[in-house]
Design a protein that fits this description.
Radius of gyration: 18 Å
Largest sheet: 4 strands, antiparallel
Number of helices: 6
Helix content: 25-40%
Oligomer: single chain
Strand order of the largest sheet: 1-3-6-4
Order of helices and strands: HHEHEEHEEEHEEHEE
Distance between the termini: 25 Å
């Protein structure tokens, strides 16, 4: 399985066999993480790999996570875009795991038990992973519980080569499966927007910014990295209830 294939194949898995992962695979993952592409080069990020016992010793949740391993993502929080950056990095990790045959899920409810030590970046979120228990990968995009593509679009597709990127963004996981990401197109640009969360989910505003980064990671992998993401100071006018996030442009060698 290639990384692109993982966009369709990956599903969020919360039940695991408990079978330990091969240490060589963990070493491969660490190597991948060391070279993973961030959305923002200027935001300090730290990704640490934990086994379950060590993770539960340091982090708390109302019910314990069942995965055998965790990728813990920390980040400086004073720079705009840090949440989207974390989503962008973490989803690339999840896709890499999928293409290696390993199940995963975003672990959004954990809290660090102690105050971060001096010099340690603040905890943001984790990706849990391991051998899925009766959790086969998807074979078809239609198996994913997602809205139809036209429900993500705020206007017509302006270029046919955008279609694979839009489909990749559509398949991205999101908190409570609210699927807040929307797309508007003008010429050679895709404007990524976010639908404001309903009042009852207002507390999810931060995590939905992570959702945006997750969708952009899917798009980045789908085009083999041949795209760029920028945040414009003067984005186009959007429908009411929409928040502008980023603009995507394909690089010339992707045309």
């Amino acid at each position: 399985m290639e990384m692109k294939d993982a966009i369709v194949a990956r599903r969020s898995v919360r039940s695991y066999t408990g079978q330990p992962l091969d240490p060589l695979l963990i070493d491969e993952l660490a190597d991948f993480i060391s070279g993973v592409k961030p959305l923002h080069d200027n935001i300090p990020v730290d990704v640490m790999l934990y086994e379950r016992e060590d993770f539960h010793r340091e982090f708390a949740r109302s019910a314990p996570y069942r995965a055998t391993n965790f990728a813990v993502l920390r980040s400086a929080m004073s720079i705009q875009g840090y949440l989207q950056n974390i989503g962008f990095i973490g989803e690339q990790i999840a896709l890499w795991l999928t293409h290696k045959g390993i199940s995963s899920c975003w672990a959004g409810m954990a809290k660090q038990k102690s105050v971060p030590s001096r010099g340690e970046l603040p905890y943001v979120i984790s990706v849990e992973f391991g051998r899925g228990n009766n959790a086969p990968f998807r074979r078809l995009a239609e198996e994913a519980p997602r809205k139809k593509l036209h429900e993500y679009l705020l206007n017509e597709i302006s270029r046919p080569e955008f279609l694979p990127l839009l489909e990749a963004g559509r398949l991205a996981p999101s908190a409570v499966n609210l699927q807040p990401v929307r797309f508007l197109m003008e010429g050679d640009s895709i404007f990524i927007c976010r639908k404001k969360p309903p009042v009852r989910y207002k507390s999810l505003d931060d995590i939905q910014q992570i959702d945006v980064g997750i969708a952009m990671a899917n798009m980045y992998v789908m085009c083999d990295g041949n795209c760029m993401f920028v945040r414009q100071s003067s984005p186009p006018e959007l429908p009411e209830g929409m928040i502008y996030e980023y603009t995507v442009r394909l690089n010339r060698d992707a045309d």
